[in-house]
Design goal:
This protein is of the alpha+beta class. Helix content is 49%, strand content 14%. The chain has a four-stranded antiparallel sheet, with helices on one face.
Length: 136
């Protein structure tokens, strides 16, 4: 398909690239402007945004990296740079990269289980974003 097909649809359930560099990820790598505005509304909500950020922080503690197709140098216009969720607000999407694949599973049948176990950790956050995105 064309490069932005994923942006127009739902989140990536699992993105897997094995090669000289491995990538395993899920989420919304790129949000369209309207979706991005709604995602930011979620993050700016004191209750829902704080709960979302706690889940994202827990994933970071597990070795996940949060990224996006485009990341701002500072939070969007009108958002205090010291906002407690500024670290999420700078991203124009919610890509969740799994921790690096351990060498002990990289070339073994254990790889599929390792990926699935990690995706199960991150999936609730992606599902929450998807539910919120659809109700806005």
């Amino acid at each position: 398909g064309k490069g932005n097909d994923v942006a127009d649809g739902g989140p990536a359930a699992i993105y897997l690239h094995l090669g000289t560099e491995d990538t395993v990820a899920l989420g919304h790598w790129m949000l369209e402007p309207e979706q991005l505005a709604k995602y930011r509304q979620l993050l700016l909500d004191d209750k829902r945004g704080a709960a979302f950020a706690r889940k994202a922080e827990a994933l970071k503690q597990e070795g996940f990296t949060i990224s996006a197709f485009e990341t701002l140098k500072k939070p969007p216009r009108g958002v205090d740079p010291n906002h407690p969720r500024a670290w999420l607000l700078v991203h124009k999407g919610l890509g969740l990269d799994l921790p690096g694949i351990p060498a002990s599973v990289r070339h073994s049948p254990k790889l599929a289980k390792w990926i699935l176990d990690h995706v199960k950790l991150a999936a609730p956050l992606v599902v929450e974003l998807e539910r919120a995105r659809r109700t806005w």
